[in-house]
Amino acid sequence: MTLAHDVAGSGPTVVLLHSTACDRRMWDPQLPALVDAGYRVVRSDMRGYGDSPVPDRPYDNAQDVIELLDLLGVEEFALVGSSGGGRVALEVAARWPHRVTSLALLCTALAGHEPSAELRAFGEREDELLEAGDVAGATDLNVELWLGPHADEATREAVREMQRHAFEVQLAAVEEYPPIRPDFDLADITAPTLLISGDHDLPDFRQIAVRLSKELADARHRELDWAGHLPSLERPEAVNPLLLDFLREHAGAGRERRG
Fold it and tell me: Which ranges form a coiled coil (predicted)?
């Protein structure tokens, strides 16, 4: 299956991977800025999100991304991932390091991370609401947790729409198939990496950013004192310059590494 996606602009390719509270529409505030800066932007919906159907067999999120890029004829690319999309981006960068020129991770999740009590409690409450058929309640729970104080009502409504759509699509599935989780080693990541965390987010995501800043070969960590879990939506006017500066700094880095 080819992931639902869109492509805009021309130049070096930047791939945008969405949070699992959203879909590819979460990058609407970044798309014009990236295109205007001279990038070809590819954004896709993971299976069960946005316009991509739920999987009908076990699936591999990272392989899905690579197959889409192969279809589009993209050999080298920069990756930008938010939360669950960051977890997928890390896997892509570790399994196909020669193809990733740079890696920007916003409040990224991490495979194998032991969740805090607060994050576990959120997951349990979300499950309770969904099992009771209260999709609206589960949606509101996500909106309140994941957005920081700078998110306006239009942003909250956009996240509410994306999250509710994901719940409705996934709950309508006849059968649930688990993702395939191949082994990979973070030490294989060679791409320069920008890690962004928010002071109003759950502590898990700052802990992940700090850990990755120490484990990855070429990584820097930027904390945003105003941000929640979705800073690219909360204040795009602050996040877009950070992304553009980072991408400009590392343009062509993949070719240089292979020398």
Answer: none
Tens of pLDDT, residue by residue over 163-201, are 999 999 999 987 888 888 899 999 999 999 999 999 999
| Domain range for 147 | 5-258
State the burial class of residue 225 (Cβ atoms within 10 Å of its Cβ: 0-12, 13-18, 19+). Answer: exposed
113 secondary structure, DSSP code:
-
Sequence-separated (6 or more) residues with CB below 8 Å from residue 89: 17, 79, 80, 81, 103, 105, 108
Total-model pTM: 0.95
Task: Check: CB of residue 102 under 8 Å from CB of residue 128.
Answer: no
d(CA 247, CA 159): 26
The number of domains in the chain is: 1
Helix (H) or strand (E) holding 210, with range, is helix 203-215
* Rounded Cα gap, residues 29 and 193, in angstroms: 22
- 129: domain CATH number is 3.40.50.1820
| Chain segment 188-235, per-residue pLDDT in tens | 999 999 999 999 999 999 999 999 999 999 999 999 999 999 999 999
